[in-house]
Amino acid sequence: MWFTEANKIGKISTTNGEIIEYSVPDANYHLFDITTGPDGNLWFTLPQNNLIGKISPTDGKITEYNVPNANAGIGFITAGPDGNLWFTESSGIGKISPTTGDITEYPVSTANNGINTITAGPDGNLWFITGWGTIIGKLSPEAGAITEYHVPDITLAPNTNSIITGPDGNLWFTEFYNNKIGKISPLTGKITLYNIPTAIAGPYDITTGPDGNLWFTENEADQIGKISPSTGIVTEYPVNN
Known about the structure:
Layout: E1 2-4, E2 8-12, E3 19-23, E4 34-36, E5 42-46, E6 51-55, E7 62-66, E8 77-79, E9 85-89, E10 92-96, E11 103-107, E12 118-120, E13 126-130, E14 135-139, E15 146-150, E16 160-165, E17 171-175, E18 180-184, E19 191-195, E20 203-208, E21 214-218, E22 223-227, E23 234-238
Antiparallel strand pairs: 1-2, 2-3, 4-5, 5-6, 6-7, 8-9, 9-10, 10-11, 12-13, 13-14, 14-15, 16-17, 17-18, 18-19, 20-21, 21-22, 22-23
């Protein structure tokens, strides 16, 4: 398993827990997100340095790529369905070729974009959060066309924090201030919201579990939640400090 530190890339053995760290060229670098690329390398973002980086898992060699848009506000990165790496900027979406390092940027028209997480959808598109958590965006990797879906009943922004493809073929996301879990159909764009039993739970990050459910963190309640994609039933588990 690979992870980012302030100015290092780390990997931890899943068998014995041994940790190995690789220093980036400049100690002033600030690393953020990391993902596995289709080329077998690990790709990561350096927001404050306006760089996309990759590291070889075999020898730890690091390569850096400058993002053309100065002060792009790079954030999250994911492997796309088209064989490229896709990343968020403060007001757009970027892609980088793992073979050439060429970068293409796509502006998002939403005012005060506040683009957050990005994920590859089951429909072959890239899905992301924009509008400071009030809009779910979809980008076609072939055409670069962007479609936006407004999340209903938003009371406070920023709101929506994390989005992931679920085992049911929908996209699932968290609503921090609305205290809900949401899903959006990639076919129709229909959004369904599910209430979390604990008030002010602060759902933040979400992922798919090996049991076929969606699991999420409740940052304000010190709990872990799970939601069934078939029934929408939410179960919560306290975290023992």
